[in-house]
């Protein structure tokens, strides 16, 4: 299947983005030439997935498509119980409704924004225990998604199992640059958590990409298949939430997979209220069927190799041009270090957002700010939170763009990089919402 993409002029784009209060989320898709806003739900489905769509079983209860998905998830992840949900944050909502209470803390490796949102919404705290190496964008480390065991143990000692419902491992770690977590680290987190009797859950949105990096970078696993690695990875967890819009290779969908039947029953009640009956969770039967097929495809080495090499190709071009990006190159996106790219724009004027707007005006490419706007205000002090890294993320949709698109993106960024000294100021907020402000924030030129 192919889609039209839309060209425009620089003058058009300058006008459009101003009309949209300099928020890239506000742009209609036909005003975007190459859309790198997200890799979530934006990929192309395969011939086999489309044929599954034709034979989806739309029964309200006991659908064959549900049974097929359940069996696939059981085989791929090892988890026994399945609750489908309409997307990843819905899975978070259902699981956290069962487990996260006011005053709790949830340690992990740079929780994704909706995950953190769901934790903070329940008046609990997400504590980031990612290794310090992750926050130095130029430092090469094979597993920058890893959890620092000392930081984690400090949290365990301070709060104990009464206040810690679980530890969350996000694979790959989106917020720190699509960076993987090693099996060795996962195993150590499990051992430590066993000592403190704290469950371990995964946010598995990009679990297959994580397994690819394990195969490539963790010697003990170089001869294992992706499916073998995935099974071992999840064997150290009590369950997972999943946004199937990433490594499920579908346009919508998610799930919770668990080992504990009691927890499954509690989550099931929340699932029925929020999502739908146990065997569809807000999805059509055909969506469940396409997801089952997607999970089979995303856990094949050849698919992962072509996907991740495409991102590596773009990243290497940018490195060649001297553009500062998060290294090593991650699994689903390129993360440009905006503070280094635009040294004259102060942190208070949002350098990553400023770079995102420049790239849109330059070439019609839409990325997304992973920086101060996204980090939101501290819920208590209401002060801006300045994250360690201020990044512009260029997320690459799966099975969608070609190498020539990558070349175009690289040259567009180089053009801006060559005139970076002329960019001296950024933007200020003219309106923002209470929570998850980045989606709707209004900005004006400083
Ligand atoms: N967890 C991770 C690691 C994610 O990256 C996302 C979504 C979610 C959970 C939530 O899943 O969107 O299906 O509700 N990430 C998208 C992104 C939106 O652009 O990175 P969802």
TrEMBL record:
Positions of the Aromatic amino acid beta-eliminating lyase/threonine aldolase domain: 35-410
PROSITE patterns named among the record's database cross-references: BETA_ELIM_LYASE
Short name of one Pfam family: Beta_elim_lyase
Residues modified to N6-(pyridoxal phosphate)lysine: 246
Keywords: Lyase, Pyridoxal phosphate
UniProt GO MF annotations: carbon-carbon lyase activity
Gene3D superfamilies: Aspartate Aminotransferase, domain 1, Type I PLP-dependent aspartate aminotransferase-like (Major domain)
Coiled coil: none
Presence of the UniProt keyword Cell cycle in the record: no
Source organism, top-level taxon: Bacteria
Reported cofactor(s): pyridoxal 5'-phosphate
GO BP, one annotated term: aromatic amino acid metabolic process
Family: Belongs to the beta-eliminating lyase family.
Protein name stated in the entry: Tryptophanase
Source organism of the structure: Empedobacter brevis NBRC 14943 = ATCC 43319
Lineage, uppermost ranks: Bacteria, Pseudomonadati, Bacteroidota, Flavobacteriia, Flavobacteriales
